[in-house]
Amino acid sequence: MGNWQDKVRRVVPYVPGEQPQRPVIKLNTNENPYPPSPAAVAVLQAADGAAFRKYPDTDATELVNAIADVYGISADQVFVGVGSDDVLGMSFLTYFASDKPVLFPDITYSFYDVWAELFRIPYRQIPLAEDFSIRTEDYFADNGGIVIANPNAPTSLALPTSEIRRIIEANRDSVVIVDEAYIDFGGESVLPMISEFDNLLVVQTFSKSRSGAGMRVGFAMGSKALIDALKAVKFAYNSYTMSTPMIQAGAAAMRDVEYMKKTTAAVVATREAFRPRLEELGFTVLPSATNFYFATHAKVPAEVIFTELKKRDIFVRFWKKPRIGNYLRITVGTDAEMEALVSALTEILKAY
Ligand code: PMP
Predict the structure, then answer these.
(1) What is the value of pTM for the model shown?
(2) 223 three-state secondary structure
(3) What domains can you pick out in the chain, each with its CATH number?
(4) Residue 31 CB–ligand 1 contact under 6 Å
(5) Tens-digit pLDDT profile for residues 36-57
């Protein structure tokens, strides 16, 4: 064997939640329990297969225009990608090219440090406060960029936009990325601030509030200068990220604002209805502005509950990590799924 192995890039990959290929109660990856907009499904059902012969529109114009129309911004302030992971990864590559460390919380979306390592971007993970809140002042240090998930994952906590404004105001010489994957479930978006701050990039996704995790559509909104830089990097790497069917179905899903509002309201109603049920079982549940709970039990270790639930075909998320090793992240499903969760938990906790 030759020595090619020495030349291979070694990375520690991101670990996604399990996607079991059999029916289970799946509360482990924050998918939406409701189907995507019927308008988007209709577009896919009516798709003209012959049109797939051609390459897609590299600018995904139909989808970009739909996003621009819905949010009342101009098309040159919108960038789309294959889920927000694609958009975020591309953003790390684009905006974080300095030698100074990029700042993000120690407990946040666990892809951020993976991209930083992959692209060899220096970074510093800033500890959240004891109650898992973000301390605004911690982001006033010199840096090469800032990434804040708001609401944060897996904590489910939202930071007021006034606090994010303070972070942006103190960092006019860096790009500030606000990852709003869960914003439609109760947080307040900083989108209106993109006209004020040319260094603010707001990233959102179709995976959660638009029930499209399998569609793989994400988007970023920001100043034209920021979006132009992102497009240049994208076109330096892969110009055909978006497939023709997803450009079309994505546009239909985006324009169906009413359906998105209705289904997110249903998820929020379930979230609030089942919070006291979990509390009655002895859980402390953080105040969620998302479609998931972050919860810890007073007596029974999270890992035990996680394993026992899995035996009953109920999947939730658990990380054996410092600070959060006794917490479970539980996606809000349908009322019926949550009832099944509560009965399984009742049975499991009875034994302790
Ligand atoms: N940001 C956060 C905070 C997330 O939790 C997720 C979901 N794993 C993503 C981004 C990426 O989601 P997607 O690529 O499906 O848009």
Answers:
(1) 0.98
(2) coil
(3) 16-35+258-350 (3.90.1150.10), 38-255 (3.40.640.10)
(4) no
(5) 999 999 999 999 999 899 999 9
